[in-house]
Amino acid sequence: MNPTIIQHAAQAIADARNVAILTGAGVSKESGVPTFRDAMEGLWAQYDPAQLATPQAFAQNPALVWQWYQWRRDRVAEAQPNPAHFALAQLQQLKPHTTLITQNVDDLHERAGSTDVIHLHGNIAANKCSRDCQGDPTPITDLPATDDDLPPPCPHCDAYARPDIVWFGEMLPPAAIQRAYDASENCDAMLVIGTSGLVTPAATLPLLATQSGATLIEVNPTASTLTAHVDYWLQAPAGEAMPILIQALQTKLGQHDA
Ligand code: OAD
């Protein structure tokens, strides 16, 4: 990685009052959690999302969809946070006005010590009623295991429980996306880590940030749809780049204090 780019990116974060971070599946790749679109090994390379991550797919074949999420839950449970997750938790400590927004549904940011994480696409560890019978989705964390492949019933009505995940075609949790818009509009620097930038509205957040005058820093070994818009591109895996960036930031913050 270009040391000059590291220094400039670290300086932009050090100088920023408000920092926003947007992460995608790439930040969890080095933890062994598959991304969606990486050729061949991405989740979508093996499955057709239209068959699995939609309300229609669940209505048509609840057992298949439920089992796929159980398999993904097992993969997340086996995974451990990687150096990128820990570096981001450290960044929140170093820069108190930092908002972490993720498209990921795993809990690796939280397990690495990050707090107040905004999950735009839900949380794979939680379930909710497939009929939304409580009005707004109430995560149903512990449900009885079922002896068949079918989802367990919602404890409040006779509908199936389903993963508390945003499926294709569904609305994002309004409070989460509003907080994400606010943080993107008001940040002075935004880090965009491990996302292809192919899914909106998440992919519009970095554009909102740069239009609001923020410095945009991308961490991704491969160019994304956002790369043309960023000020600094750290072309490396997040687990490698993030500890180096945080180290440079600490040095600069030390200089600030001196
Ligand atoms: P993608 O699979 O679309 O993109 C993963 C990105 O991570 C790619 O740009 C890779 O180059 C990059 N990447 C791979 N390894 C990396 C590493 N070690 N460090 C950093 N970056 C790495 O995943 P997302 O962009 O997160 O939404 O996908 C966005 C959304 O599409 C997901 O949240 C999901 C999916 O549909 C829903 O399910 C609603």
Radius of gyration, Cα only, in angstroms? 19 Å
**What is the structural class?**
alpha/beta
Number of helices: 11
What bound compounds does this protein have? 2'-O-acetyl adenosine-5-diphosphoribose
Helix % is 40-55%
Morphology: elongated
Please write the string of helix (H) and strand (E) elements.
HEHHHHHHEHEEEHEHEEH
Spans of 5+ residues with little confidence (pLDDT < 50)? none
Oligomeric composition of the shown chains: single chain
Major β-sheet, in short?
Answer: 6 strands, parallel
N-to-C span: 28 Å
Number of strands: 8
Whole-number mean pLDDT? 92
Topology, please?
Layout: H1 3-15, E1 19-23, H2 26-29, H3 43-46, H4 49-52, H5 55-60, H6 62-78, H7 83-94, E2 98-102, H8 108-111, E3 118-119, E4 122-129, E5 161-165, H9 174-186, E6 189-193, H10 204-211, E7 215-219, E8 232-234, H11 238-257
Parallel strand pairs: 1-2, 1-6, 2-3, 6-7, 7-8
Antiparallel strand pairs: 4-5
Helix pairs in contact: 1-11, 7-11, 9-10
Task: Provide a concise account of the structure shown.
With 258 residues, the chain is an alpha/beta fold. Helix content is 41%, strand content 15%. It is built from 11 helices and 8 strands.
